[in-house]
TrEMBL record:
One of its GO terms (cellular component) is plasma membrane. Pfam families: LysE. This is Lysine transporter LysE. Keywords: Cell membrane, Membrane, Transmembrane, Transmembrane helix. It comes from the Bacteria. It comes from Amycolatopsis thailandensis. The chain crosses the membrane at residues 6-27, 39-64, 76-94, 115-136, 148-171. GO terms for molecular function: amino acid transmembrane transporter activity. InterPro entries: LeuE-type. It is found in: Cell membrane. It is a multi-pass membrane protein.
């Protein structure tokens, strides 16, 4: 695998990371509250990608994405989870009580939400079984190349989300006020519900 191929793949990966999606919204929602919360959510997302990489390496993702029934089930479950997260955020914005009170950090819950939102997203699996193989040189063994590209993807994600969290965590002071926190919950909640609906429409 040439350095040019790796550079081109890295460019494609970074474009995919920069474009807003479920991971983007979930991490933003947490990082705007605190840097620690954002980093926990980012770790959950990247661990989800590790699952997709392992599934692609063992052929599980290929089986799922080539079975209309399995793909549809994965879409529905993933969409339902995004809608649930969005509805929860919207509910908090309207019925969350005194949002000036500091939240008790729940790292396990934040990690789980981010992890599941990524693992249940069939588009993440699709990347590993449709985009990534295009950068594999058929003249060499496929498995080491898939592993190299997958780890490069995850490593770039760690750098991207680290920068993303550092930038968006600057909002944490603003989020101590009731009004901005409610607005953030409503915006991210609506975005998650919309992304869930768009996921259902994915063919």
């Amino acid at each position: 695998m040439s350095a040019g191929t790796l550079a081109l793949f890295a460019g494609v990966v970074m474009v995919a990371y920069v474009i807003p999606g479920p991971d983007w919204v979930v991490i933003l929602r947490h990082s705007a509250r605190s840097r620690r919360a954002g980093l926990v959510a980012a770790a959950g997302v990247q661990c989800g990608l590790v699952v997709h990489l392992a599934a692609a390496a063992f052929g599980v993702s290929t089986v799922l994405l080539h079975s209309s029934v399995a793909f549809t089930m994965l879409k529905i479950v993933g969409a339902a989870y995004l809608v649930y997260l969005g509805a929860h955020a919207l509910w908090r914005s309207w019925h969350g009580g005194d949002s000036r009170m500091p939240e008790k950090p729940l790292p396990k819950r934040m990690f789980r939400q981010a992890f599941l939102s990524n693992v249940l997203n069939p588009k993440a699996a699709l990347f590993f079984v449709s985009v990534l193989p295009q950068f594999v040189d058929p003249a060499d063994a496929a498995a080491p190349q898939v592993l190299t590209l997958g780890l490069l993807d995850i490593g770039l994600g760690v750098l991207w989300w680290g920068l993303f969290v550092l930038l968006t965590a600057r909002l944490s002071g603003l989020m101590r006020e009731s009004g901005p926190r409610k607005v953030l919950d409503r915006v991210t909640g609506t975005a998650l519900v919309g992304l869930g609906g768009a996921l259902v429409a994915t063919s």
